[in-house]
Design brief:
The protein is mainly alpha-helical. The chain has six helices and three strands. The chain has one domain. Strands 1-3-2 form a three-stranded mixed sheet, with helices on one face. A hairpin with a 2-residue loop joins strand 2 and strand 3. The longest helix is centred in the first third of the chain and has 25 residues.
């Protein structure tokens, strides 16, 4: 059961994507336990809200098929751009980096992505996903973006 302060912290996060990185309103055995519990509670609330909004969409676009050979698919998609923008002697290096740096945001992967990313990134990814399926974003404050980069990954729809 969440306390009133915890519910307020989560509501503020859902509205803005901002959160208290120390999770001050959460209890724990120590500092790290408090952070772990706070992060999990925020991520669970984000997934819950995402699933509610996702369920209001008539049908998810099942026609999007992510190929089994994702690296080859990614390489084929980015190769013309790389060849046009990067020096010839550096193309292979850039292509080998890019082919392992693109992830696709799908209904099957969205929850995993939310739990593995920093919360501010997870909030952006959740809103990106919701807009891509024609659902209302979690917040009117969510930017209208078409892809997202985090760490060494580019997330695509």
């Amino acid at each position: 059961m969440l306390s009133n302060a915890q519910e307020i912290a989560i509501a503020q996060f859902l509205q803005s994507g901002n959160y208290d990185v120390m999770y001050s309103s959460f209890d724990g055995r120590d500092h790290f336990d408090r952070i772990k519990r706070g992060h999990r509670s925020h991520a669970e609330a984000l997934v819950s809200e995402l699933r509610i909004r996702e369920s209001k969409v008539a049908t998810l676009n099942a026609s999007i098929v992510i190929p089994d050979e994702l690296q080859a698919f990614t390489r084929a998609k980015v190769e013309p751009m790389v060849r046009g923008l990067v020096r010839k002697d550096e193309c292979e290096l850039v292509l080998s980096l890019l082919e392992v740096s693109v992830e696709f945001v799908t209904a099957e992967r969205i929850e995993e992505l939310i739990f593995q990313e920093e919360l501010s990134d997870a909030w952006e990814i959740a809103n990106l996903y919701l807009r891509s399926i024609g659902a209302e974003p979690i917040s009117s404050e969510a930017p209208n973006i078409v892809d997202f980069s985090t760490k060494a990954k580019c997330l695509r729809l």
